[in-house]
Amino acid sequence: MKNFFKALSVTVLALSLTACGSANNKADTGNAGNTPKGEGTLSFAFLPNTQNNTFQTAMTKTYERLAKEKGVKFTMLDPDYDLNKQMNQMSDAANQGFDAVFVIPVDSAGIRQGLEQLNDKNIPVFNVDTAVIEDDRDLVESVIATDAFMAGKLMGEQMVNDFPNGGEIAILDFPSNESCVQRVAGFMEGLGDNKSKFNIVAQQDGKAALDASLPIAEDIIQAHPDLAAIFAINDPSALGAAAAVEASGKNIGVYSIDASPDGKAAIVDGSLKAVAAQVPIQIAEQSFNAALDLIEGKEIEKEMLLPSHVVTKEMAEETAGEWQ
Q1: Does the pTM exceed 0.90?
Q2: Are 138 and 296 spatial neighbours (Cβ–Cβ below 8 Å)?
Q3: CA–CA separation, 266 vs 241, rounded Å?
Q4: Gap between the Cα atoms of 33 and 40, Å rounded
């Protein structure tokens, strides 16, 4: 376990160094920016919330692969969790006349103006991974994401199985992200009739990040010596909690949602007790194909929620180093 966290700390440092130079990060499989498209050539753009996470980079690589296979020009613009930067990038994308744009909002409730600019240019928007708020759904063609509520529910049900008598638990959430709100709601639903047996002693914003979640988890563990388990809304947050648990020397179960390469390593290592899967590769594939269908005049679903599943140790070992 210690070796895993030692290796993880090196990875986190590398990511943080990479992030320092990622403000204007752009990936392109053909012409990008204001370069005119060739006649008949489609051009797609991906506007994620960050590239400082293997989930989003897995999506980018999938879009790049599909664009190359289909002869579509592809551009990625990285705001690095900066809402103002994402709004500027959405404005740029509107002016560049892409045939479709895939967006992960930095703030689910904060990008309406950018969506309106894209709509004004008749550019179809596919809202991927993290849904915008209900009031903005009319501005996107489709929402394509892992079923966040289902993923959270699976973890609630798993916790009940592991702790049938209940106990003190903590939640590390991320309330500015609609997908993470749904994960927590699903988790609470998953506790079901046993909900009264669990005492939620703390629920705090771990910002979906290891470095933010670790000290929060340390404080929670110190304040609540009988803590039985922690539910975190994603693997980076859960890995911060797991590091705090290891440092405390206590036996506290950590539950997560993602099944990232690092998360799978922690399942195998025993640092995470249970993880429900997110499916970034499938999200990218579904949204890319939906964009092609829409352009060809076909009807597409307004919402496509892809099922989650609990990742066992055996599954983690078989798919080590990979997303799904």
Answers
A1: no
A2: no
A3: 12
A4: 17
